[in-house]
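Technical note accompanying the year-one report. For the benefit of new consortium partners, we illustrate the data format agreed upon in the data management plan: each record pairs a sequence with a structure-token string. No post-processing was applied to the example shown here.
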Amino acid sequence: MLSKSPQSRSLLIVGICAPLALLLGYVLAEPLALSTLGIVLLVLLLLSFPLLLHWHYPLLVFCWNATLIFFFLPGQPPLWAVIACLSLFISLLSRTITKTKQSGFLRVPSVEWPLILLAVVVIVTIYFTGGIGSRALGSENWGGKRYIGVLAAIIGYFAFIARPIGPQRAALFAGMFFLSGMTAVLSDLAYAAGPAFYFLFALFSPEVAAAQARSQDILPRYTGLAWMALAGGYYMLVRYGIRGLFVWQRPWRLLGYVGLFCVGLMGGFRTTVVVTAILFCCQFYFEGLLRSRLLPVLLVSVALTGSLLVGYVDRLPLVVQRSLSFLPLKVDLRAKQDAFSTIDWRLQIWKTVLPDVPQYLLLGKGFNFSGTDLLLTQEAMRRGFYSSYETTLVTGNYHSGPLTVLIPFGIFGALAFAAFCWASLRVLLANYRYGDASLAKINTFLLAYFAARLLFYLVFYGQFDLDLMVFTGTVGLSVAINGGVRKPVVAPEARFTEPQFAGRAARAVT
């Protein structure tokens, strides 16, 4: 009776909002204090909880590849990690309350158990290597943010499989999943616009614009622009596929894809060319185009493009030449030296690290490192006593995918990750083969994307705490869109009723 009265509802709202307003007015006397930010965050979460109950899952899908950060919390963790934890909590709460079939999780044990084992290995490593450690919390040991990246990626997978998406919304959610990566360009734009727009770094990661800030004088590089172009290219492939790009009645599709690739070269990353090439080849194969008429068209186009580059590559911007410097082209010496100096740098890292691998096979080194050691190493490098790769050895970013999981988490972590990748490939392959026809383009791209990123991670470059969320998010989205793992449809056996059988037998006798 009380809840049906409009006056009672108004009194209830005032009774809740008035104390919150008084509390906020009191704590905002010190607006920059950590306790103030925590209380403001708590109030915002309480007020937005009804919205989160309804929209937490779409928000999870959108934020997964976005470069948004949660500036309220110490260390400014990525927003996708926070939303993944909230979404899983809400899904578990809903499951506990309703207990209906619709609220059940999509079970894929072959993927779940390796992730659970990996989480156990991470927690055991944290316990035996001095705790999680965090610079933002004032600890002398740093590296806690990387642990959070790994655990949040595992939590995110279970948040993805908390509910099915359904074929009717698959295109929308796949578009949100990949297009949100285009938010990276806003970080570059904020830095280029000047100090008046630096407030945007409270929402968008400033680390994206770090390459632009460090390279302004020599070779300006735009990381956010490169990531935006990659995200746009992913969306075009998942939306149209390669067949859809080469529809001559709609030339803007192919021109848009090529234009995005060219824009991505402004980042100066060879990664842009390599990842795009591997992904395009995987997509081309899984779409079954190796025996189609598109193959000679593509080969001729590549040959013509290579001929043009041979003659005019030295007239391109230096940052573009850096992206193409690994190809047999006559690029500017400055771009080549800037690019190939990192190759020697990485070879030195691997030569130094490989002898230390056996001692970390049983119990990994973890992500913890001493902040004092890092600062002293940086000072020694500045004075010329240490090589340029020494800080990388301290922080544990070895610029090699297998090493970034083997050294921090030992052989057990590496085996758990390998089992997860193998099971994920089988899941994606099953959904690609036996999925609904309306999901063919999405399933094809998700398989090609996972395979391409895994190949790049293992062979060229990888960082486990950053790349794991790519793999868990991709397979989690595939499971959610397909409602689990699709299996081949077995045709029902032909059965005859007794009159039909009798009629056939009579005709046979006749």
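Partners are asked to follow this layout when depositing records. The two ends are 82 Å apart (CA to CA).
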